[in-house]
Fold this protein.
Amino acid sequence: MAQPAKRAETAKRVKGATPGTGRRAGLDRADMVAKAIELVEAEGPDALSMRRLATELNVATTTIYWHVGSRDELVTEIIRHQSERLAARPIKGKKPRDRIMSAATHIWESSIEHRAITSLAHQAGSSSLLQYPFEVVLATELEAAGLVGPEAALALQSIRATVTGFLVLALRDESSIPRDRRTTAVWAASEAELDRSTLDALATEPDLNKLFEITLQAVIDNHL
Amino acid sequence: MAQPAKRAETAKRVKGATPGTGRRAGLDRADMVAKAIELVEAEGPDALSMRRLATELNVATTTIYWHVGSRDELVTEIIRHQSERLAARPIKGKKPRDRIMSAATHIWESSIEHRAITSLAHQAGSSSLLQYPFEVVLATELEAAGLVGPEAALALQSIRATVTGFLVLALRDESSIPRDRRTTAVWAASEAELDRSTLDALATEPDLNKLFEITLQAVIDNHL
DNA sequence: ATCGGTCTGTAACAGTGTGCAAGTAACACT
DNA sequence: AGTGTTACTTGCACACTGTTACAGACCGAT
C-alpha cells in the first residue's frame, strides 16, 4: 500500500507522548504540516527541506513521505492550512469604493504578515490557493458595487495583478541579493541623462505601502 | 590565483577552432555566456545547471568555474548581456500619455518575448538589472511629460510594480502547476455565494494583454 | 630547459527530492 | 496464546544540484 494521502486517523492515539512501546513516532500528518509551517515562518521558505523537517521531528526522512506523499503535497497542505487560518478581517468603509479598497488591502497586509509562507506559495505557484479566500471577499464587494460577470472578473484580475506586483517587490529578500544588483543601487550608479532630482529619487528606497495605496486606488477607480 | 573575473583576453586567440595543441578548449567567457543564453532560451531557466552547460560545451564543469566564477556570476552576466542586446524599440505616439504607455509596454513585450531569461532574472532577484535600460527610457518620457524628481520616481515605481505583477502572472509556468491549483481551477471549484456569471468569468483564463493595457493606462493616468 | 601563468580534468563534499525493500510494533481474530 | 494483517518507520541508494581542492597539461618567456 502506498500512502494515506487522506487523513487516516484509523486509530485514536495521543499525539503528545509516544503511544505504544516507543517504536512508533506517534506523529500525524497534521503534526508534520504544523512543524513545517513553524519552520518556514521561523527561517524562511528555503529552510524547508525534507531532511531538515525530519530532523526537526526526530524522524527519518521517509516517514514524512509516508505521511504527506511528497514535498509538493506538503507545501500545498501548508498553504491550504494557512489559507483557512487567515483571520477574516472586517471590511472597513461604507462606500463600495472604500470597501473594495479595504478588501484588497487585506490581501496585501496578510501576505506581508506571513511573508515566508507567501513566498513559499509563490515559489510553488500556488498563490491562487492562498489568496482565494481573500478574493472571494473582494469579489463580493465588487458585486456589491454593481459589477457582475465579466466586469467583476476584470476588476478582480486587475487588482490581483497589481497586488501581486507589489508583493513581489515587497517580499523579495533583499538581503540575499548582492548590493550592486538591487534596484536602488542600479539607479544610484546610473548615468542616464535625467534630472538629478529624479535620479536621486529613484535611488531611494520607495515607500511601498504608500505607493501601494496610491496605485491600487487608481486601479480600482478605473473599474467603477 | 583565482579566476579572471574581468574579461582576460590576454592572448588573442581564434575561438572557433581549437588553438594550440588540442588540450585547450579554446573557449571564452563570452562563449559560456552565449551557450548559457542559448540553453536557457531553448529549455527554460531550470535547465541551466553548471554540469549541463559543461556537457553542452564539451568541457568539464570546473572549466566554467574558471571562466565565470560561479553560477551567480554567470546569471548576472547573462542578464547584463541580454539587457544590452535588447533592441531599443521606438517609442510610439505624440502625446506624453501615449509615449509613456508605449515605453511601459516595451518592458512588458520584451519580457514576454524573452520569457525564459526574464524568469531567470526574476529567480535570481536581478530583474532590476534587466529592466534598467527600459526604465531609463520610461523615466525620460515621464520627464518629458512634466514629471521630475519624486513625482517621476513615484510614477515609475508605480508602473514598475504593475508591470511586475502582470509579468509574474503571465510568466509563471502553468504547465508545471498541478491543474487543481491553477487560478481558474480554484475558481471553477468555488462555492462562493457570487453571481453565476461572475464565477464563470473568474474560471476563465483572462486575456492578460488586454487587461494589462487597461490597468496600466489607469495607473499612468493617475500620475499625469 | 626551466619557470610560471593559463587553463582543464578528476574526484570529492555537502546538499537536495525521492523510491525501494525490509523491518518492527500494534491491533484483530482465532 | 498464537497468528496474520495493517500501520508505520527506517536505512540505503539513486540521480541530481553548486562548489572546491588538487593535479596536472599546455604555452610563452626567460
Observations:
- Confidence is low (pLDDT under 50) at residues 5-22 of chain B.
- Chain B touches chain A through 62 residues (CB under 8 Å).
- Residues 1-85 of chain B form a domain with the Arc Repressor Mutant, subunit A fold (CATH 1.10.10.60).
- The CA atoms of residues 8 and 29 of chain B lie 9 Å apart.
